[in-house]
Amino acid sequence: MHLGESSMPYKSVSIEIPGPKQRVTPKQQQITVATELKETVPGNVDFTSITSAIFGGLAGLMTLSSCYILYLRYGANVATFVGFKKLPASPVAPVPVLVVYAAEDPAFQGAVVALVEFLQSYGGCSVAVDMWQQRKIAELGPMRWLAEKVKTAQRVLIVCPKSSLRSSRCPPNHTFPEPSIPASAPDLYPLILNMVAGHAKSSRDLAKFCVVQLSEEQDNRPRNLAPELRACRSFCLMKDLTKLCRSLHGKDQDAKISDLIFRPRIVYTEKCT
């Protein structure tokens, strides 16, 4: 028996296979919005007043600065003139000064005492002189005492009389006791001359020594001075008293520029002594 085509029925089935889900990210859109800003300037602004105010402020500042500078320079004198009391100035270290003098007559000795007391009381100096340190001289000896004082002193004043004064003797004044000449004076004067001669080769060391002549006019004739003192700077009292006091304070290294500009000047006259 021959079989033909199969008569069995076929059933077709369709199957859907789901694929992977794809995530879609939404794109952000940037929107640019242009805005127009308008600034309104008021029409009633007075630029002249603003300029005047600026220049007025600058002028006031300059006036205040000028008044402050004038106060620093002349304020103390004006305040004293009005009636205010002047406060004491800040203490300043006194200048160490050594005074050596020739052994002359009591009149010359009295002039030396007046000079030493003036420098100690009014000249801002710490004076070392033999008449005030007799006990120390007796302990150390004249030569050692003089060497130590010359080393520590900033200035060494060598007081010598004028030759014309040696011949003219003043009449004795019995109202006040005449000052006596210390016994160390004849020894110290030759020693200081030898020290000056030893420093003659160095101008820096020789600048420490100054000659003070107690006469009305400075004697420029070299023969009237000791040969050792002719190279030293010389002052004549009372004529050069102001120059002498300025010279004694000329080595102040700690002085500020502002102090030198605004510091009140001190004028020395014969009335101070």
Automatic annotation (TrEMBL):
One of its GO terms (molecular function) is interleukin-17 receptor activity. One of its GO terms (cellular component) is membrane. It is a single-pass type I membrane protein. The chain crosses the membrane at residues 50-71. Coiled coil: none annotated. Keywords: Glycoprotein, Membrane, Receptor, Signal, Transmembrane, Transmembrane helix. It is found in: Membrane. Residues 94-246 form the SEFIR domain. It holds the Pfam family SEFIR. InterPro entries: IL-17_rcpt-like, SEFIR_dom. Gene3D superfamilies: 3.40.50.11530. The keyword Glycoprotein applies. It comes from the Eukaryota. This is SEFIR domain-containing protein. It comes from Gasterosteus aculeatus.
